[in-house]
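ESCALATION

Customer reports they have been waiting on this structure for their group meeting. Please prioritize. Original submission:
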Amino acid sequence: MVSAARSAWIDVSLPLRDNMVQGFMEPLTPHIEFVLSRKKGNKVAMYQININSHNGTHVDAPYHFIERGETIDKMPLDTMIGPARVIDIKDTESIKVGELLPHNIQPGERILFKTRNSSRPERLKQFFTDSVYLSLEGASFLADKKVSVVGIDYISIGGGGLENIDRTHLILLERGIYIIEDLDLSKVKAGRYEMICLPLKLEGGEASPVRAILRPM
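Update from on-call: job pushed to the front of the queue and completed.
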């Protein structure tokens, strides 16, 4: 018999909403509205969704930065289904190698970082440039460990600086490591989980919004 705690899935994705907060590089302001609704006299309700592939909780595929990299529709399904580990980061600036070493990270792991970003309510109202990010040394460390997935609880894994954003993404994506960004880990404790985090099947896409869920193991 499966216990209640084990069967309880936790939604760790942010809701998509009109004018939601996004990174400074995105060219299109998210716009979501009912184009058909019963309030307007229609018999059905229907949303019109105008977003880019990096709005909300999303997955970056290698093609995001790598010309010959794998596109999101070619991602093996088991990449985002299976065991994952949430690691609680205490550093308030960045995720550094020194804090990663004690966790004995293994090849093939799916690693999700919970930082102080998760506890900042303003993340839903405005973009902040002082988010905790993955340092370049931390990215290289994870790439050398041959993890399969790295996730973080804010819009960009590389933080608010353009140079660091590019280099961090390149280090991971050129090694075929998928990136999950803008996770909501506020209700999740450090530990091991089952994860389902599937992107839309966008033909030739470089990224996609996801519905990410975790269940304690």
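Sent to customer with the following note: The chain is about 15% helix and 30% strand.
Escalation resolved.
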